[in-house]
């Protein structure tokens, strides 16, 4: 299990968790606004992607956005590995 001590430094630390598990697009936008400028934004996003969290807003990104980012990272990593193999 990865260290989660960073969670205590997030903009979300004193807010109800339900805000970050919205059921509609308006709720997603509210959660994303809370994430703006968060000191642990990147760590939060990485945590969600690396742990395959498939629900809620993490690191200012929705589930769909995180899936896209994860795909882009995999493609980038494969390209980088292919270049090393040349």
TrEMBL record:
GO-annotated biological processes: cell redox homeostasis; negative regulation of DNA-templated transcription
Location in the cell: Cytoplasm
Primary residence: cytoplasm
Domain of life: Bacteria
Pfam families per UniProt: Whib
Residues where [4Fe-4S] cluster binds: 12, 35, 38, 44
Alphabetical keyword list: 4Fe-4S, Cytoplasm, Disulfide bond, DNA-binding, Iron, Iron-sulfur, Metal-binding, Transcription, Transcription regulation
Reported cofactor(s): [4Fe-4S] cluster
PROSITE patterns reported in the protein's UniProt record: 4FE4S_WBL (PS51674)
InterPro entries xrefs: 4FE4S_WBL, Whib
Cofactor annotation remark: Binds 1 [4Fe-4S] cluster per subunit. Following nitrosylation of the [4Fe-4S] cluster binds 1 [4Fe-8(NO)] cluster per subunit.
Any one cellular-component term (Gene Ontology): cytoplasm
Every 4Fe-4S Wbl-type domain range: 11-68
PTM notes: The Fe-S cluster can be nitrosylated by nitric oxide (NO).
GO molecular function, one term: protein-disulfide reductase [NAD(P)H] activity
Family that this chain belongs to: Belongs to the WhiB family.
Identification of the protein by name: Transcriptional regulator WhiB
Organism: Acidithrix ferrooxidans
């Amino acid at each position: 299990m990865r260290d989660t001590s960073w969670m205590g430094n997030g903009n979300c630390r004193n807010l109800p968790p339900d805000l970050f598990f919205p059921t509609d697009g308006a709720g997603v936008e509210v959660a994303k606004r809370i994430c703006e400028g968060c000191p642990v934004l990147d760590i939060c996003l990485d945590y969600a992607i690396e742990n395959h969290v498939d629900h809620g807003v993490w690191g200012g990104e929705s589930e769909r956005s995180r899936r896209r980012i994860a795909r882009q990272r995999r493609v980038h990593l494969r390209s980088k590995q292919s270049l090393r193999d040349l």
